[in-house]
Amino acid sequence: MVTTAKRLLRLLKAEKNHHSALALFDSATRKPGYTHSVHVFHHILRRLVDPKLVVHVSRIVELIKTQKCMCSEDVALTVIQAYAKNLMPDRALDIFRRMSEIFGCEAGVRSYNALLNAFVESKQWERAESFISYFDTVGISPNLQTYNILIKISCKKRRFVKAKGLLNWMWENGFKPDAYSYGTLINELGKSGDLVGALEMFDEMFEKGVDPDVVCYNILIDGFFKKEDYVKAKEIWERLVMQSSVYPNVVTYNVMINGLCKCGRFEECLEMWDRMKKNEREKDLFTYSSFIHALCKAGNVDAAEAVYREMVESGISADVVTYNAMLNGFCRVGKIKECFELWEVMGKKGYRSVVSYNIMLRGLLENRKVDEAMSIWKLLPEKGCSADSTTYGVIIHGLCKNGYLNKALHILKEAEEGGDLDTYVYTSMIDGLCKEGKLNDAASLVNRMDKHSCKLNTHACNTLMNGFIRASKLEDAIRLFREMDTKGCFPTIVTYNTLINGLCKAERFSEAYSFVKEMLEKSWKPDMITYSLLMNGLCRSKKIDMALNLWHQVLQKGFRPDVTMYNILIHGLCSAGKVEDALQLYSNMKKTNCAPNLVTHNTLMEGFYKTRDCEKAFEIWDHILKNGLQPDIISYNITLKGLCSCCRISDAIGFLDDALQRGILPTAITWHILVRAVINNGAST
Question: Do 651 and 621 touch, CB atoms closer than 8 A?
C-alpha cells in the first residue's frame, strides 16, 4: 500500500510500462487523505507525451488545479510541450494563458518558446509570427532557443536564404548559434534535396567553432545514401569516426547498415555490424531488421537466421517488416520448407500483411511451386487481406512464366471486375500470350487496358511489338509502332531498338537505317545497343564492309564500344575468314580497357581452327588461362572439333582429359565430335 508521495515516485520510476504507471498513479489518487507531490505530477506528465496517452494530460492538469499544488514553470512547460508534440496548439495556448491559475507560476521565456514551437509544429505560421511580436509587448527577451525556432519557421517555409541570414544575424548580435541551430537548417536542406547546401552549412560549423552533434552527421549520411551517393555518405562517416568529438549512436549505425544494404555493399554491412558489437552499442528493432534484410539480399540466409535468433534472445520482438525480410531471404535461396515454417509463425502472431503474401507468392512461383502458390492465393480473402496491384502482378506474371496461361487469364478477368490493376499486370499477361504465339489475344488485351482505367504505356506496346517480331510479323510490329502516338504513348529508344533488331534479323537493312534516321530527327540518340543490333545484322548477312564502316562511325561519334559490340564484329570477321583482322581488334580491346571475355576467346579460337592455324588457337587458349577466365564446355568443344579437323586426335583426347579433371562434363556434342573424328580417321587409314 502506497503511504507517501516519495514511495509512489520510487514505484513510478521502477515501472517501465507507461499504462501501468498511469494505473498506479490513479490508484494512489483514489486513496483517502493522500495528495500528490509536485515531483509525482511532473513525473507522470512527462510520461504522457505519447500520442496514445496525451488524452490523460487534461485530467492530471485539473487534479493539479483542484489540489492547488504549487508547481514550477518546468511542470507547465512539460504540459505545453506534450500538446505541441501532439499538434494540439489550442490546448497549449489554453495552458499558457492559465499558468498562474493552474500551477501558481508565471510564464518565462521558456514557456513562450514552447508555445511558439507549438504553433510551428502545427504549421500555423501566421499565429507563430504574430506571437513573436507579442514577446516585445510583454517585455520577454528572445533567447537562443527562440531564434532556433525562428530558423525552424524559415526552414519549414523553404526560406533557406532567410534562415541563413538569421544565423549570420545571430553571430553578429552575440547569440552564438549551437548544433541545434545548424542541425535544423542542415536537416531541412537535406530533405529538400540540397545536400550541397547542407554540407556547406556543416563545414561552416567547423569554421565557426561549433561542434556538430551526432544528429548533424546522421542527417548528412542518411541524405547522401538516399541520393545513392555512397562516396559522400562514407566520407561523412569517416569524418565522424576519425575527426569528431562525438560518437556514432544507434541511429548512425541504422542509417549506415540500411544505406550500405541499398547500395549493395553487403561486406561493409557486416563490418558495420561487427564494429557495433565490438563497441557494445545497443541495437534496436530497426538495426536488426536492416541487417537481416541486408544478409537476405546478399543470399546469406543462414547468417540472417543467426541474427534473428540473437534478436529474439535479446528480448526484441520481430515485427512484420523483419518477418518479411526473413521470408524474402528464404524464398530467394529456394528454402521452401523454411518459408512455410516461418509463414505459420507469422500467421499465429497475426503478422501477415499483403506484402507478406506478395513475397510468398513470388517466392513459390519463382521456385515453380504453382499448386502451393495457388493455395496461398486462395487464403487471401479468407484471412481478410485484399490483393493489391502488386499481388495481381506477381500471381499473373508467375503463372505466365510457369506456362499456366489459362489460370492467369482467369485471375485477370476476376481482377478486372473489381480488383486493383496496373500496367505491369497487363504487360505480364501480354508477354505470356506472345510467347505462346497467341498474338491476337495479346493485341485485344492492349485494347482492353483503357476500358479498365489502366493507361497504356510504352512498355506494354514494346512487349507486343517484340511478340510480333518473334513471330516474324514485322508488318504488324511496324503498324503498332505507327499507332503508338494515337494510343497516347510514345516510342522510346527501347522501342526503336526492338524494331531495328527485327528488321536486321530479316535483312531489311535499308528500313532499319531509316528508323535510325527517324530516331535522330526526333532527337533520340542511338545508343550502343542500337549500333550493336545493326552491326550484328550486317555481320549475320555477311556484309562485313558495311559493319566495319558502321564500327568506324561509332568510334568517330565518341562511343567506347563494349565487349558485346567487340564480340559481334570479331565473330563477323572470323566468319568471313578475316581472322587476322579479328586478332587486331582483340589487341585493341586491351588498349581501350575493354576486357575480352570467354566469348571473345572462344570466337577467336574457332576462327583460327577454321583456317587450320592450331598454333594461334593454342595461343588464344593460353590467353584464356592467363586472363583468369575458366574455359567452359563450349571452349573444349571448339578445341576438340578444331584439333580433330586437323587430324590431331591424340591432342583432342588430351583436352578431353583436361576438361574432366576440371569437373567439366562432356555433352552429346562433345561425343559426336570425337566419334565422328575416330570414324573419319579410321576410314582414311
Answer: no
